[in-house]
Design goal:
Elements (H helix, E strand, L loop, with lengths): L16 H6 L16 H13 L10 E6 L4 E3 L13 E4 L8 E14 L27 E7 L5
Antiparallel strand pairs: 1-4, 2-3, 4-5
């Protein structure tokens, strides 16, 4: 187990040709990009995570990068269910400096709810951002689950 031989410190570089060579057994062989603007594209992502869109017994992963200056963590609003007590990122800035961070999407949960406009309702048919377009940016339903090297 090459990685485990490094005492669990994920910040260290591997050294030695054998470790370098063995790393090539775990590499991507292709990639594609999904610009998620509507529920159809979101469904593609969900099916990729679940079964590679092919009924496989193992799903896939997805990565994205976001600006980190000015993003918004919120204490979890999940009082019940499998996501109770978890953190929720409710916004990323649209622009910023070069302080960006990559995340890996490892799952999703359609039952997560967040009331962005504090009207005590969960909707997907109200123009929350005032752009006169109803799309996923106006939905208060669902969330992706991310793995984050920075902690919670």
């Amino acid at each position: 187990m090459t990685w485990g031989e490094m005492a669990g410190d994920y910040r260290r570089w591997m050294t030695g040709y054998e470790k370098y060579d063995s790393a090539f057994t775990n590499k991507i062989d292709s990639y594609f990009k999904i610009i998620i603007t509507d529920s159809t594209k979101l469904d593609i992502l969900k099916h990729w995570l679940s079964d590679h869109n092919e009924g496989d017994s193992i799903g896939g992963l997805s990565n994205f990068i976001a600006m980190m200056t000015g993003f918004g963590y919120e204490d979890a609003h999940f009082e019940e269910g499998p996501e109770a007590g978890k953190w929720l990122i409710v916004r990323f800035p649209y622009y910023g400096d070069t302080n960006s961070h990559a995340f890996t999407i490892v799952g999703y949960n359609d039952s997560v709810r967040y009331d962005f406009n504090d009207d005590n309702m969960f909707t997907n048919n109200v123009d929350l951002n005032g752009d006169h377009i109803l799309d996923l940016r106006d939905s208060e339903f669902g969330a992706v689950k991310v793995a984050n090297s920075w902690g919670a």
